[in-house]
Automatic annotation (TrEMBL):
It comes from Vibrio scophthalmi. Residues 35-142 form the Peptidase S1 domain. This is Peptidase S1 domain-containing protein. InterPro entries: Peptidase_S1_PA, Peptidase_S1_PA_chymotrypsin, Trypsin_dom. The lineage of its organism: Bacteria, Pseudomonadati, Pseudomonadota, Gammaproteobacteria, Vibrionales. The keyword Signal applies. Residues 1-17 form the signal peptide.
Amino acid sequence: MRRSFMLLALLSSSTFAAVDGTSVNWLNYKDMVNNNCTGTLIGGKFILTAAHCNDIKNTVITQDGAWINPTVVNDHLNYPGVEGYDLSVLTLPNRLETTNIHYFADLNSDPVRNGDEVRLFGFAGTQDQLSYATMTVDTTPTVVTSRYTAEKNYWWW
C-alpha cells in the first residue's frame, strides 16, 4: 500500500531529513511552502511546520515567490524544552489558492503498517528545490543512543 504524506514538517530533525530524493517542480505543489524548512498548507490559511523553523525566519515563501508574514505563530506549548514537540501552526493573513487539499489521516481507522511506503516531501536544506523521498515504514523498535544518532533510521510523523 502506498501513501503520500506531505507533512515533512513533523520530521524536523536533521536526522530525519529526506536525502537523495527525487526533484519535483514546486509550481505543481501549491500546498507546500518554504519557511527555512518545509511547511504544508492546511485549509488554505494555516501552515503546519516545525517550531524550530520560526526561530530562524518568520516568513513563508510560496511556490509563486510571494513572501508572507504569518499573523499568528502557535508553537507547541512544550516547545522548546521537551524533545518531540517541535511543531508549529502558522496562521496566514489571507487564504492561499491551492489545488491540493489535505486532511489529517484517521490512523485509528486506516493505520500505517509495517512495510507501507510513505512519500516525504521537503526542501532538504535548499532554498527552492522541492524533492521527495519514498520510504518504507519500519516499526521495529530502535535503540536511540543520542538525540541525533540511532542504530537504524526511525521515522516519526
